[in-house]
Design a protein that fits this description.
The protein has 504 residues and is an alpha/beta fold. Helices cover 31% and strands 26% of the residues. The chain is globular, with a radius of gyration of 23 Å. The termini are far apart. This is AMP-dependent acyl-CoA synthetase.
Length: 504
């Protein structure tokens, strides 16, 4: 399926049903279809051909998301550009992808002016909320355009530039169709879904729209990430499905209005993109409801490597299955997951190694980077870079990112285990654990902690609390209390920024 086929499928169920809603205003499936067709025709008139790459640079916005379907209807390839990237990184991505067109939101005009002259392939630049520019663009298209997908390539997603030049992940229509099928078979969908998108549509929140649209559901788009507004929207729109990374869920749990908000419409509250504290997850199951649903994936194998439906958080007797809350669920039905050692040999149950995956969820490769593609698919498996194990019941436990493991005094310490111990402290809102160079230990385990509003606690008290739970070797030798932690565009804590701040 092309990306636009999810829209057209929803429209076939009820063309007059609300499709995209923002700021209390809704546009129907028929209206989104019509505009996507005009966008496709306009792109064709500007010389965009099937297989060409077209970028979108925008915050959450219904017109920007409609452009995704226009790009797909033209047979072109969607390249989401993160609006919070620095100009240099976006310039690199647009150049790497070879984008011929860029559709952007007016607040990002200064960034576009800064980079457009350096992009040799870019021939069309359109601001969709500049009425004159946008109307001129749309009026330029005359013939209806509904082109087949080119080579099944649907989108190219940048991975970020933390380890050098950014890479572009090539995702096909088959990859996203697999992800959509896994979503629909793994989680509850009763009636017509209403999906609330607070997280950026350039990331997980965007691709989770496709299964909702295939069911004729409504997507409520939040322009800015405000937790209070999020809770208001869940109640007012009778939201059935939503997604947040753990750090934002912690903010929801800390919000004064949570317990007074009607959340009874929720069927599925997805969490993912980073490990979630089991203690906070148990709190969410009690206070938000038995609707929490985990997903584990990555850009290269989107969203659904493993899944844990709401029911899987509970034992048959209805009690919370505390022993599972630290897991990432079970491998999804259309993915084969294994644990691999450094030599390429597969590990047995409970043995720790790199999580590897096979199946139609896995990307086609890295754009114009055969060496990186070959490295990621060594031994015939896609390598996630995550360290973990499978238990006897086939639950997947992720113990760390390979790059985040701390080697201190000759011992391997997984930062996730230390973070989970710290998060059990009642005064802690969030935390991050890294390794810093140390003359004695090689690396010292270092924790940066954000406290709950109005709480105070000494670093020594946190250290003693952790030592009682996981022992002296894993207890941070340096504990910093910060008012807030640096976060990425999707709410992940940026350990590289913490490391840069604390490095001598």
């Amino acid at each position: 399926m092309r990306l636009v086929d999810y829209l057209d499928k929803g429209a076939s169920l009820d063309p007059d049903a609300p499709c995209l809603t923002t700021d209390g205003q809704s546009v129907s499936y028929a209206e989104v279809q019509n505009l996507s067709g005009r966008i496709a025709s306009a792109l064709k008139a500007r010389g965009v051909r099937p297989g060409d790459r077209v970028a979108i640079l925008s915050a959450n916005d219904p017109t920007a998301f409609t452009c995704v379907f226009g790009i797909s209807r033209a047979g072109a390839v969607w390249c989401p550009i993160n609006p919070r990237n620095e100009a240099a990184e976006n310039r690199e991505l647009l150049d790497l992808f070879g984008c011929v067109a860029l559709i952007y939101q007016e607040p990002f005009a200064p960034l576009v002016r800064q980079i457009r002259d350096d992009l040799r392939d870019l021939t069309t630049v359109i601001c969709f909320d500049d009425d004159e520019d946008w109307n001129d663009f749309l009026d330029g298209g005359e013939e209806p355009a509904d082109e087949p997908a080119h080579d099944d390539l649907a989108m190219i997603v940048g991975t970020g530039g933390t380890t050098g030049r950014p890479k572009g992940v090539e995702l096909t229509g088959t990859n996203l169709e697999t992800m959509t099928a896994l979503t629909l078979m793994s989680y509850p969908f009763e009636g017509r879904p209403v999906y609330l998108a607070l997280a950026p549509l350039t990331h997980a929140a965007g691709v989770l729209c496709f299964p909702v649209l295939a069911l004729g559901g409504e997507v409520v788009v939040m322009r800015t990430p405000a937790v209070g507004v999020f809770l208001d929207h869940v109640q007012a729109h009778r939201v059935t499905h939503t997604f947040l990374p753990p750090t934002l869920i912690y903010m929801v749990l800390a919000h004064v209005c949570l317990d007074d908000t009607d959340l009874s419409s929720l069927q599925c509250f997805w969490y993912g993109a980073a490990p979630m504290s089991p203690a906070r997850l148990e709190e969410a199951l009690r206070r938000i409801g038995p609707v929490m649903a985990q997903l584990f994936g990555q850009t290269e194998a989107p969203m659904m490597i493993s899944t844990m439906a709401p029911r899987d958080h509970f034992r048959p007797d209805g009690m919370i299955a505390s022993e599972r809350l630290a897991s990432a669920g079970r491998p999804s039905p259309l993915c084969t997951v294994a644990i691999m050692g450094h030599d390429g040999e597969l590990k047995r149950r409970r043995e720790t190694g790199e999580i590897v995956v096979r199946g139609s969820l896995v990307m086609r490769g890295y754009h114009r980077d055969p060496a990186a593609t070959a490295a990621a698919s060594a031994h015939g498996w896609h390598h996630t870079g995550d360290i973990g194990y499978l238990d006897e019941d086939n639950y997947l436990f992720i113990v760390d990112r390979a790059k985040d493991m701390v080697i201190t005094g000759g011992f391997n310490v997984y930062s996730t285990e230390v973070e989970q111990a710290i998060m059990q402290h009642p005064a802690v809102q969030d935390c991050a654990v890294i390794g810093l160079p140390d003359d004695k230990w090689g690396e010292r385990v270092t924790a940066v902690v954000q406290l709950r509003m109005g709480r105070t606690v000494a670093p020594a008290e946190i250290g003693a609390f952790v030592r009682e739970r996981i022992g002296a070797v894993k207890t941070p030798k340096q504990i910093e209390i910060w008012p807030d932690l640096p976060r990425s565009k999707v709410g992940k804590v940026l350990k590289r920024d913490i490391r840069a701040t604390l490095m001598p």
